[in-house]
Design a protein that fits this description.
Shape: globular
Distance between the termini: 39 Å
Radius of gyration: 16 Å
Strand content: under 5%
Number of strands: 0
Order of helices and strands: HHHHHHHH
Largest sheet: none
Number of helices: 8
C-alpha cells in the first residue's frame, strides 16, 4: 500500500517503519549479524554469511519481487494472504537448503540456530496464513529481537520498542488489526527463543 503525498506525518512514519523493518530486511540482517559474531576469519564470514544470505534472503525475497513484477502478487509485502502460500513455501524450501549447506560447512551453532529460527517462524506463519492474515512483520520482528537478546545480552532489549513500532505501523496502514499483530508477536517470539536456546 502506497501512502500518497499529503498524508499525515503518522502515515508517512508508518510506511517508513513498515519498509525499513520489513521481514525481508530483518531476515537479511539477522544471519549476517550472527555470521559476523561467530566468524573468526574473512573466509568464514564469506562462506557462512554468504550461504545464509543467499538462501534465507536473496532467494525468498527474489521470489516475491518476481511475483510482483509478473502480477501474481499484489505487492512485496503480499498483503493478500491468499497469495502467500506459494512464495512462503518456496522461501521455506530455500531456507531448508541453506540449513543443509551450513551443516555441511560446519557452521557454528549460533548461526545454524538463527537459520533454524527463520525456518520455524516462517513455517508457522505459512501454516497460519492458510486460514488467517497473521502479521508476518510482527512475527519476524519479535523473533529477531528475541534472538538478538540471546546473542548479545540485555543491551538488545532496546529492540522491543521497535517491535511495538512495527505493530503500530501495520495497524496504522490498515494492513492488519491489533489481534493479527499481537498474534504475530506471540507466534514469532517464544518459538524463536526456545529454538535458539535448544540449539545453542
Amino acid at each position: 500500500m502506497r501512502v500518497p503525498r499529503g498524508r499525515p506525518a503518522g502515515a508517512r512514519l508508518a510506511r517508513l517503519l513498515t519498509e525499513v523493518l520489513a521481514p525481508g530486511v530483518l531476515v537479511t540482517a539477522l544471519p549476517l549479524v550472527a555470521a559476523v559474531r561467530v566468524s573468526r576469519t574473512r573466509t568464514d564470514l564469506l562462506l557462512w554469511g554468504g550461504t545464509a544470505l543467499l538462501f534465507c534472503a536473496v532467494v525468498p525475497v527474489g521470489v516475491i519481487l518476481h511475483g510482483v513484477r509478473r502480477g501474481r502478487l499484489t505487492d512485496r509485502h503480499v498483503g493478500d494472504h491468499r497469495q502467500r502460500a506459494r512464495p512462503l513455501s518456496i522461501g521455506l524450501a530455500s531456507v531448508a537448503v541453506g540449513l543443509l549447506l551450513l551443516a555441511a560447512l560446519r557452521a557454528p551453532a549460533e548461526l545454524f540456530a538463527v537459520i533454524v529460527v527463520i525456518f520455524v517462524v516462517g513455517a508457522a506463519c505459512t501454516l497460519v496464513n492458510h486460514w488467517w492474515k497473521l502479521s508476518i512483520h510482527a512475527a519476524v520482528a519479535g523473533a529477531t529481537v528475541a534472538v538478538l537478546v540471546l546473542l548479545f545480552g540485555p543491551v538488545a532489549q532496546l529492540g522491543w520498542p521497535l517491535v511495538a513500532a512495527v505493530g503500530w505501523s501495520r495497524v496504522r496502514l490498515r494492513d492488519h488489526t491489533w489481534p493479527q499483530v499481537l498474534a504475530g508477536v506471540a507466534l514469532g517470539t517464544p518459538p524463536a527463543a526456545a529454538v535458539f536456546l535448544a540449539l545453542t
